[in-house]
Amino acid sequence: MLTSRSVGFVGLISLVVPIGNAQPVQLTPQQDRERMMGLLHIAAPLRNGADGRNTQAPNYANYDESKANPYPTLPDPLVLKNGQRVTRADTWWNRRRPEIMEDFDREIYGRLPQDIPGVTWELIGVTGEKNGDVPVITKQLVGHVDNSSYPLINVEILLTLTTPGAADRPVPVIMEFGFTGFRPPGARPPGAPPAPTGPTWQQQVLAKGWGYAILSPGSIQADNGAGLTQGIIGLVNKGQPRKVDDWGALRAWAWGASRALDYFETDKSVDAKRVGVEGHSRYGKATIVAMAYDPRFAIAFVSSSGEGGAKLHRRNWGELVENVAGNSEYHWMAGNFIKYAGPLNWNDMPVDSHELVALCAPRPVFISAGATNGDGWVDAKGMFLAASGAGPVYKLLGKKDMGTTEFPPIETGLMDGDISFRQHGAGHTPGPNWPTFLKFAERYFSNNRSLTVAVPYASEPRP
Ligand code: GCU
């Protein structure tokens, strides 16, 4: 409930300014990041990121493997903070996993607030059409976020769900974090390589008899620092800027994906125990965050997620912590994250991304990248090392790791375990790895194996 206070009288007219109803604060990304540096007592400028373009620049990105591992010793996912080794699954679930989550919450991605308002899904349109040869039904959905606590910010989550028209039972669904949500069919995001020939990913999904969904991240949270006092983050904070451990855009997007999954649980056309999540680049980062934090997601296709995603923060290759801590990307993360671009260093992080992959265990995860020539920025090997470093946790939970710690040749998938990896031969795109992912997913979706993960803890507050 809003409270009000009278701030003055003009004749008989009382000017009432409701507390909590001040206009949202407006800052540029630079101002907001500087404000955050102030909260963190960082006086000196942060270190610059790598330059990904100018080969002559002194800080040109490193692509030399002999210089890539300045900090080869990773935090051990199976050692408790008190030094004790984790040898039993229940110790992982009850003690070690919560320790790792707390570190990711506080230092890397930010905490999910306790009091996030509820979402009411509305079906605003249904169309029957054909995608390729397949008759489909597409639902346009809007998730209205209850903004009664701060009516100046309105958050409406946009989602489409497409299922085969001929399905006579609930179908598995692959949900993508769409680059623009309701992009016209065939339109390509800026900077994407030319569209591949052959069936689109949606048509490949339909060919398995499954459905697909597209979530609009921008309808949940803007992709810039100026938007942090708007969107779901701004709504919860009533238009005020973030605290040092508040959630960033990646967690906000992942939260939105979980709300879409809430909707799927109510839609009879969806087998909500078999919902996979997929995203590319910044949305590859959102994908692994969604998978790590919400145990209801059955599988993930994490495409070219790079720094801030599956890449080890401790690697010196392509994009660095310092880049993600910069003005155009820091909003993805918790405020605390920027400390590691100065005064602290990557090796000071209490966790690294192999432990993010480990948070997904025992569920299947596919880590994907393109060729170094074209997708070097995302550090395929750094992501492979994270996938490999999560192996002991998968094994502890009775699952299979990748079966090797050797980086495989390009276009050679490591697909036999429950963590999988493949570097395709093209550039910065998920395209060529879709068939590989769908084959992997088929192993889990086409048999009667239960995908419900018994998780003896509450992963996140549900509205
Ligand atoms: C930039 C950024 C990456 C990000 C990518 C994208 O290249 O450095 O971290 O993944 O944009 O989302 O396209």
Short structural summary:
With 463 residues, the chain is of the alpha/beta class. The chain has a domain at 106-116 and 148-155 and 164-254 and 270-445: Alpha/Beta hydrolase fold, catalytic domain (Rossmann fold, 3-Layer(aba) Sandwich), CATH 3.40.50.1820. It is built from 12 helices and 11 strands.
In words, what does this structure look like?
The strands form 2 sheets. This protein has a 9-stranded mixed sheet, sandwiched between helices. A two-stranded antiparallel ribbon has the order 1-2. Helix 6 links the parallel strand 8 and strand 9. By secondary structure, it is of the alpha/beta class. The relative contact order is 0.15. Residues 1-17, 181-185 and 449-463 have low confidence and may be disordered. It contains 12 helices and 11 strands. The chain has a domain at 106-116 and 148-155 and 164-254 and 270-445: Rossmann fold (3-Layer(aba) Sandwich), CATH 3.40.50. The protein binds alpha-D-glucopyranuronic acid. Alpha-D-glucopyranuronic acid binds at residues 281-282, 306-307, 319, 323, 377.
